[in-house]
Amino acid sequence: MNTNLYVVGISHEKANQEIRSKYSLSEESIQKILQEAKKNGIKSLVVLSTCNRTEIIGNVPHPYIIIELFCKYSNGSVDELTKYAYIYKQDDSVLHIFELTSGIKSQILGDYEIVRQLKNAFKISKQEDMLDSYLERLFNHALHASKEVKNATEISGGTTSTSYAGIQYLKNKFGSLKNKKIAILGLGDIGKSTLKNLTQYSDANQITVLNRTVSKAENFIKQYEKTQLGDFNNLKAELEKQDILFVCSNAKEPIITQQNVPLTKEFTIVDLSIPSNVSKKVMEFKNIDLIKLDDLSNITDSTFEARKKEIPLAKEIIEKHRSEYQAWLSNRKFTPVLNGLRETLQHIKEAELKANIKNNPEQKEIANLVTDKVIQKITNRFAYHIKNDPKMANQSIEVLKEVFDINI
């Protein structure tokens, strides 16, 4: 079965938060996708689902295999996905993974939270025995590029994350957060990042964490003096005490609704959840200021323009590491085929010499030397063509395998 590396995804670049929410995948859904793909004979597949993008990376015969899995385990349709999705193949897929890992494609330029998210996605695939050596090697090269981009450029200068952008919005709106009562709903990765950024980059001193699992929250907030634990099960009463709410939960249905938001005072909600855990009806209340993920991408600090200027240098670094990966890939993928070609030509040579030169050892020795040189030149010519014309390499390899009956 001939396969190509495909990436099918949906992101902030073309789809808004509402559309992205439909294609968000839970941990359970990701496991089911990997299991079904494995059952169907797919050898390598990685599923990434974040607040800004959901994508599936895999070595498959056709991208529609990925599209079917995407829509089967999300709440979106095929028609809508094809309208908003990006589909990359082979070299474009490789470049996308490098740029994604280096923070160039983050909604907040230089946000390196994507590295941790990708590491987790690849780890899950490896645990499910759904990560082949090609894709694993690609990710390792992308990680090296990401590290060099981070160290050699200022693309991640300052602080770059959606939670930090949310804090910037609040500081622009209120000036000081010192007298504001702030709640964080959900203590997953986004919630933890929000709490960390609030304590490090603002003067907020009245922070409440609301989390379904109390023990998890209790252990985490011990390191933050200005933070207390609220009662998740009494959400309406807790929110009445607050001025600001960061929604960082990842429930399948909205947690914040018109039934539990304060109605008698100004109340600001920063929604960092995907799918959105804030009901659309909340927007009907005039006292509610609801800020969504896509709103935050327009909020920049003084370092943004400086980071933007670093993109060309970042791309130079990416190209260096991408070329190294392509060189490894060519050697790994094409050497067995070239060896098979050489072996097939040797069999043809031996059969012809046996049939045509029977009783002349001296002539046979000369013929051996000449034909060995011809075989070497033919093999070298194919090797040169494959390495210097990578766009045609896969097609050339398939032709060689078919014409010379090479089974790899």
Descriptive notes:
The protein is α/β, with parallel strands linked by helices and 408 residues long. The chain has 16 helices and 10 strands. Strands 7-6-5-8-9-10 form a 6-stranded parallel beta sheet. The chain has a 4-stranded antiparallel beta sheet with strand order 2-3-1-4, sandwiched between helices. The protein is elongated and about 105 Å long.
Keywords summarizing the entry:
408 residues; alpha/beta; Beta Polymerase, domain 2; Rossmann fold; 3 domains; six-stranded parallel β-sheet; elongated
CATH architecture of the largest domain: 2-Layer Sandwich
Which percent range describes the beta-strand content? 5-15%
Query: What percentage of residues falls in helices of 4 or more residues?
Result: 40-55%
Low-confidence sequence ranges: none
Computed structural class: alpha/beta
Per DSSP E runs of 2 or more residues, the count of β-strands stands at 10
State the CATH topology of the largest domain: Beta Polymerase, domain 2
Q: Compute the gyration radius: what is it?
A: 28 Å
3D shape = elongated
Please count the helical segments.
16
Q: Whole-number average pLDDT?
A: 90
* Whole-number tally of structural domains: 3
Entry summary:
With 408 residues, the protein is an alpha/beta fold.
Task: Give the topology.
Blueprint: E1 4-11, H1 17-22, H2 27-39, E2 45-49, E3 53-60, H3 63-72, H4 78-84, E4 86-89, H5 91-101, H6 113-127, H7 133-152, H8 162-174, E5 182-185, H9 189-201, E6 207-210, H10 214-221, E7 227-229, H11 235-240, E8 244-247, E9 267-271, E10 288-291, H12 293-296, H13 304-308, H14 311-356, H15 361-388, H16 390-403
Parallel strand pairs: 5-6, 5-8, 6-7, 8-9, 9-10
Antiparallel strand pairs: 1-3, 1-4, 2-3
Helix pairs in contact: 5-7, 5-14, 7-14, 14-15, 14-16, 15-16
